[in-house]
Amino acid sequence: MHAGTAAELARRGHLxxxxxxxxxxxxxxxxxxxxTDRRKVARASTAGQLHVRDVAARILGLRAADFDxxxxxxxxxxxxxARSGWNKHDVVLLYRQADLDRIARSHRIDWDAxxxxxxxxxxxxxxxPTREAATR
Length: 136
Fold this sequence. Notes:
Layout: H1 5-11, E1 17-21, E2 24-27, H2 29-33, H3 38-47, E3 50-52, H4 53-60, H5 64-72, E4 80-83, E5 91-96, H6 97-104, H7 111-116, H8 131-135
Antiparallel strand pairs: 1-2, 3-5, 4-5
Helix pairs in contact: 1-3
């Protein structure tokens, strides 16, 4: 199981959140013990897998700048954060596999054109409105 499995099980309604500790959710251990459907757990484990920005961009087959355009446009947002292993004051944004899968299936984006754009060329995603401009 991946680190995001419990959160994904809760998101899907299979694992109740019973409280919190220092800002982190506490899940019902009894419900987790009684969760015997291994397929549900496996799907949640896959969907809840968390990736740092560079890995998430690589999964989508995008340049880092293209990935940043998706975030700026509000089409993708981080699902969680973690502290850096190098500097405990740095916060690392983590992106959920299910969100990456969702955006990869989007027909609003011409993925072939984006992936064919060479380095040094303006991305077609640069034309997307920013999240703030889109909500006005």
